[in-house]
Design brief:
This protein is mainly beta. The chain has a single domain, classed as Porin. The chain has four helices and 18 strands. A 16-stranded antiparallel barrel has the order 1-2-3-4-5-6-7-8-9-10-11-12-13-14-15-18. Strands 16-17 form a two-stranded antiparallel sheet. The longest helix is centred in the first third of the chain and has 18 residues. It starts with a helix and ends with a strand.
Length: 385
């Protein structure tokens, strides 16, 4: 039998090939008409879009960890290594008006992001191991003709929580490395159904029912629910109020996990953007019977556009994992990151992170011992189309 990774790659190629050969082929009369019209592609081709995104990086940890890994990082785990973080290919038929039906599928390949974001039961096996491939998103959409249009999505989609995103052709973070809150306070993706509705030009509501956090197949018999209220009172300001609730432990339907997440952005003129994110989470009986787990954190962002092709970004945050249920050890983590960003062309971007992580515990590998700090740098190259 072929290795699992090979079977997955063959499956993806087969799907893409099937999308091409499975399309309806015009009859002979239609061929003549097409030739007379200059062999234009079928009309349905214009309804679909194909986009892509590539990220490759090199990181260096000044602690020289013996394991060759960075502690408490999300995607930039490997020290002193060039790596292909991700190549993402997105096929979609967007929906914009009531009555529209469409879909979106994000296929990701790489040695970094797919290993972390793969959902259990899809491209992550029962041992917890993930491969170099993942279906980051795959959902069908329909806008019901109700009021201004009720959008319904069914399938797998990235979480609505957090300031930062996994990244893709249609959006990436200002910093090359991910925040502690992104990695430890919230989930990456969900499988289920969600509904979105615009209450007004400045307010929108989303609600969803899903299997849970980062699971394609539910690990218990209860579902999780989530919601978002998006407020844009004036163009320079946006506020997102997010929530998630539901049992997440395997075979446990009685101990829910709750997360409240707030995201805000403010644009000051054309050059300065300020951002903030706060998370508060708890899980019943997660520490011990009768003892609930608690975690919380805050992070702030500043982006200053120096020229149309050059920007400077700074991020600072603190994350309190009081009981160690999120990071594996009871601690308070903090980090500060500075990122210069240079856009070389419309599609090509280069950026670098200088980052310092700190903890109130000795948790970072340093030479042959442990340290309370972890300084590192990272160079990242992005291409999108």
């Amino acid at each position: 039998m072929a290795p699992r990774r090979t079977r997955a790659a063959v499956f993806v190629v087969a799907v893409l090939a099937g999308a091409c050969v499975g399309a309806p082929r015009p009859c002979a009369a239609d061929d003549t008409t097409a030739a007379d019209a200059g062999a234009r592609p079928p009309a349905w081709v214009d309804e679909f879009a194909l986009n892509g995104f590539l990220s490759s990086s090199y990181g260096y940890n000044f602690n020289h960890p013996p394991s060759g890994t960075n502690q408490f990082r999300v995607f930039d785990v490997t020290d002193n290594t060039f790596q292909l973080d991700v190549f993402e290919l997105v096929a979609q038929k967007p929906v914009t008006r009531p009555g529209d039906a469409g879909f979106r599928v994000d296929l990701t390949f790489g040695s970094s992001i797919p290993h972390v974001t793969a959902s259990a039961g899809l491209f992550r096996d029962e041992t917890g191991k993930a491969e170099d491939i993942d279906v980051q998103q795959a959902y069908a959409s329909w806008i019901a003709p109700a009021g201004s249009g009720l959008r319904l999505d069914f399938g797998k989609f990235v979480t609505h929580c957090g300031y930062e995103v996994i990244q893709g052709y249609d959006g990436w973070n200002d910093n090359a490395t991910r925040s502690l809150l992104f990695g430890f306070a919230i989930p990456f993706a969900h499988v289920g159904a969600r509904a979105s509705y615009a209450l007004s030009p400045h307010a929108a509501l989303m609600a969803m029912v899903v299997n849970g956090w980062d699971v394609a197949r539910d690990n218990n018999r209860s579902k999780s629910v989530g919601a978002q209220l998006a407020l844009t009172p004036t163009p320079p300001v946006s506020v997102y109020l997010n929530g998630l609730w539901g049992p997440e432990q395997s075979g446990n339907d009685g101990d829910p996990r709750t997360v409240l997440d707030v995201v805000a952005t403010l644009k000051v003129g054309s050059r300065l953007t300020l951002g903030a994110n706060a998370d508060w989470g708890t899980e019943e009986n997660a520490v011990a019977p009768g003892e609930d787990a608690l975690w919380w954190g805050v992070v702030g962002y500043v982006r200053f556009t120096v020229t149309p092709s050059f920007a400077l970004i700074a991020r600072g945050e603190s994350f309190d994992d009081r009981d160690g249920v999120r990071t594996g050890i009871a601690q308070t983590l903090s980090e500060f990151t500075v990122t210069p960003e240079l856009r070389l062309t419309e599609h090509l971007l280069v950026r670098g992170d200088a980052r310092l992580d700190r903890s109130n515990q000795h948790v970072f590998e340093k030479d042959q011992g442990l340290s309370q700090s972890q300084p590192s740098v990272l160079l990242d190259v992005l291409y999108s189309f």
